[in-house]
Every structure is written in C-alpha cells, then in structure tokens.
Amino acid sequence: MTAVESRPAGVLGAGPGHRPLRARVMGFVALTKPRIIELLLITTVPVMFLAAGGVPDLWLVVATVVGGYLSAGGANALNMYIDRDIDALMHRTEQRPLVTGLVSPREGLIFGITLSVVSTVWFWTLVNPLSACLSLTAILYYVFVYTLGLKRRTAQNIVWGGVAGCLQVFIGWSAVRDELGWAPFVLFLVLFFWTPPHYWPLSMKVKDDYERVGVPMLPVVAGNQVVARQIVIYSWVMVATSLTLWWPLGDTSWFYPLVAAVLGAFWLKEAHGLHARAKAGVTGVKLKEMRLFHWSITYATLLFVAVAVDPFLH
Question: Membrane-spanning regions, if any (predicted)?
Fold first, then answer.
C-alpha cells in the first residue's frame, strides 16, 4: 500500500467566518453522519420493545434515542476529524465539512468531544449507568480501536470495527432492563456478521478511492471473487444466527422467524448472485454490487421491525 500524501484539510473553501449561519449549522449536523445514525437507531428502539415485551416507557425511548444520537454523533465527528487527511483525497468524502473548511478542525474536535461527554452524562442521568458505560465504550472503540487502530492497517478493519455499531442493541436492551441477556447478544452477533457483507459491496464500488489513500479495505487487497466469497460466508452465518433468537432461545413467536427466514432468503439470493457474477469475471456496472448494499439496509430495517412487532404476538 502506498502512503497518503499529506494534504491540508479544512482549507478548500471559504473560512468558517464567511459561511452563512445556516450552512455552518448544517456542517455540524453533517459531522454526526445522520444517515448512519438512522440505521443505528433502527436497531436500538426495536430491541427496547423486545426487552419490554411490548411498548416500553415512551419517555425512556426518547431519552435513549436522543442519547444514542449524541453518542454516535460524537464518535462520527471525531472519526471525521481523524480522517480529514484522507477524506480530502477521496471523491466520496471530499465534500465533508472538515475538508471544505465549512467547519475548522479545531471546531470539529471540540464538537466531537463535547457530544461524547454530553451523551455519557445524558445516559447516566436520564437512562442508567449501564447504558452510559456501553455508550462510552462504543465511542472509545470506534475512535481508538477502529479509526486509529484498524482502519489504515488491516483488511479486517470493517469486520472488527463494526463492533461499535453493534453495541447499540445492548444499549437498547439495558435501557429497559438495566442488565444484559442472551437475546441482545444474538442480535449483536446478527449485526456483527451483517456489517462486512453490508459494507464490502460499497467498498467494491469505491475501491479506487480507498486504494488512492492507502486504506486496505478488503476489495483493495483482494479480487472481486475473493470478496464476494467472503460476503457469501458471512451472509450464511448471519442468517443462521438471526434464527437462533427463535430456536434454541425461544424468545419469539412464529412471526419473527418467518420474517427472518424470508428476508434471509432474499439476502442469500443477492449474495450468491454477486458471487456468481464476480466468479464469471464481470466488472463495472454489470457487477451490480450496490444491489446487495441497498438490500442490506432494507434487510436490517425490516428484521428489526419484526423484532419490535413480535412481542405483541408472543
């Protein structure tokens, strides 16, 4: 891998003082990566329904959602602060606020630290200490283990880096029960095995970006066929793991396993289709790797909706 050539970030646009207030505010919002946080919250709230065996306390849901947004937003802002050098060289990230100068690096660092501290205090005060500790663990893991430790050093970066996002299910469960259990552990594993086949198709699409900055995402260091085979393996393990919430744990009615099986079947069809195209040497737009990426978001959303609905049928 080639080293990243140094290039100042945060100086590509007009200085922060010359930007309209609304644009500045939107820049800080962008630092939290709202679209990623949407997915994190989709995996948190349904687990609260499962933990409560029905509708949880609505104030608790609001407190957990707000705390989760602050926590994930702080981690994402710190991630952008650390990665601003390579973000400036990647087409996918070249318009991020710290690259364009909409937000200065110092402001981004202070913003990320502030959100992280506030979210921890928020969880400790309005939810419970266990959720606060889990939230803080997710922040520290994402910043120090993934961003600083794994991302630029190993092709397994996204595999283990995904742990930070998976912790959201523990936060949702502990917010209701103030303890952990086997059900959230299963859902943690589902998300753990979901993350690589979710992200690798996107990495295949933008691998030139990662190769340019020396980030060894799996599609950069391995061919499409190898990546697609890994996607298939993780996909089968993920689908099998999702069904263990029904058997042997027995924590659901008939509804959840039915939805999980149908969604899993569609997922495996897409995963095997991608592998077949990669094995045949298909490249470019005909590889259709983004079909699995988009389906993966639908899969996670509908699976966790089933998690929320199932308690009413159990």
Answer: 36-52, 58-82, 103-123, 129-150, 157-176, 182-202, 231-248, 254-271, 292-313
- Non-local (6+) Cβ contacts of 245 within 8 A are 183, 186, 187, 251, 252, 256, 257, 260, 307
pLDDT for the residue 129: 98
- The rounded distance, in Å, linking the Cα atoms of 252 and 42 is 19
- Please count the other Cβ atoms lying within 10 Å of the Cβ belonging to residue 171: 28
Q: Which amino acid is located at 88 in the chain?
A: A
pLDDT in tens, 201-228: 999 999 999 999 999 999 999 999 999 9
- CB within 8 A of 199, min separation 6: which ones? 158, 162, 293
- 104: Cβ contacts below 8 Å, ≥ 6 apart: 10, 16, 98
Whether 160 contacts 145, CB under 8 Å: yes
Where does residue 178 fall: left (phi above 0), alpha (psi -120 to 50 degrees), or beta otherwise?
Answer: left
The two structure tokens encoding residue 134? 């889990």
Q: Which residue has the higher pLDDT, 3 or 9?
A: 9
CA distance 268 to 17: 51
3-state SS track over 261-278:
HHHHHHHHHHHHHHHHHH
CB of 54 within 8 A of CB of 310?
no
Query: What is the C-alpha separation between 10 and 173, in angstroms, rounded?
Result: 39
